[in-house]
Amino acid sequence: EGLAVTCDTAPPYFDLNETAIGEFRTYAKLSPPLRREEDRQAVVAALADGTIDAIASDHQPRDADDKRLPFAQAAPGGAGLATLLGVTLAQVHAGTLGLLDAIGLLTARPARLLQVEAGRLGKGMPADLCLFHPERAWLVEAGALPGKAQNTPFDGRALEGRVLGTWKAGLRVFG
After folding, report:
1. What is the CB neighbour count within 10 angstroms for residue 17?
2. Would 43 disulfide with which of 14, 60, 65, 161, CB 3.0-4.6 Å?
3. Would the pTM of this model clear 0.90, i.e. be above it?
């Protein structure tokens, strides 16, 4: 009693279930591991009812050699930044979240929880911006992701919602 408790999740846990592992696909070996469909649905319900306070990228990219091992020896984790927006917007397109709610879960709410001056636009605030088209379709291709790590459990997935540019402290850092 009296403790401040928060809850976050990441796209694999509201979009995928244990069947994504398929024939022991190491790209879908994550930590924590993917669970049953009922668990995924519970995470979606918690997003919808406000139980979940934030959505994180769970960006844990792995070297290709770490994933080219038998499933039991492969390192858990995957690239999460490039697909964060598109997979989150799938919940908007499905009607689970409103667009402003989804953006808040990715920006202002985590900043408020961490007590950092970020995640919102305002006079005197750093110009940290992400320009995106919420309906631009694209295909996730693991080999074409930005960065060194090219592994993602969303490889081959069609998404709507594409980042066009990102600015950090007023400087364009992507796009």
Report:
1. 18
2. 14
3. yes
